[in-house]
Amino acid sequence: MNFSAEISNLIIIAKKNKMNINEIRQHLSEAETIAFELPNGSLVPSHFHVTEVGKVVKDFIDCGGTVRHEEVANFQLWEADDYDHRLHPDKLIDIIELSQNKLGIGNLNIEVEYQGETIGKYDLDHNGNHFVLVSKTTDCLARDKCGIPQEKPKFNLADLTSNNSCAPGSGCC
């Protein structure tokens, strides 16, 4: 696989991990039950509640001074001592539709909050059977202004020497 294909695959994976409102509604309309898988592979207990569906607006300035604006649909999962409770797909669709109508959520990407040792924020994916909470990471949004390289240096293989030795500074490694 060439470098360009690898980057394309990473972009597809990154987009795949950011489920939007239309996608979750489609998955829910085809599901009989709802299950969420945590990044460690375990499932959120089946008696969870979706305590919030909302729109989160974040306006901020990154470390390079650029003003940024983000909007996500936020789903908060919570497990209670109500072991008989089971949220059914049609009920969650109703909650989503109400949120879309009352809050103007539209087709935003979804961020999920779930209580572990602290409140974790996750992107959402679907593996064909259930929803998967995908760990989020932080990153510097102004690498060019902070002096952090955007990516590793690229070399054209044709420019590398083709001798059989690998001496320091020869460009072979």
Write up what this structure looks like.
With 173 residues, the chain is of the alpha/beta class. The chain has one domain. The protein is built from four helices and six strands. The protein has helices at 3-16, 21-29, 89-103, 143-146; strands at residues 36-37, 48-61, 67-79, 110-115, 119-126, 131-135. Strands 1-6-5-4-3-2 form a six-stranded mixed beta sheet, with helices on one face. A hairpin with a 4-residue loop joins strand 5 and strand 6 (131-135). Helix 2 packs antiparallel against helix 3. The longest helix has 15 residues, at 89-103. The protein is elongated, with a radius of gyration of 22 Å. The model is unreliable at 1-15 (pLDDT under 50).
Short recap of the structure:
The chain is α/β, with parallel strands linked by helices. It has four helices and six strands; from the N terminus they run H-H-E-E-E-H-E-E-E-H.
Any descriptors?
single chain; 173 residues; alpha/beta; 4 helices; 28% strand
Poorly predicted sequence stretches spanning 5 or more consecutive residues = 1-15
Shape: elongated
Rounded to the nearest angstrom, the radius of gyration is 22 Å
Whole-number total of structural domains: 1
- Distance between the terminal alpha carbons, to the nearest Å? 19 Å
* Helix-strand topology string: HHEEEHEEEH
- Count of helical regions: 4
Q: Tell me the β content.
A: 25-35%
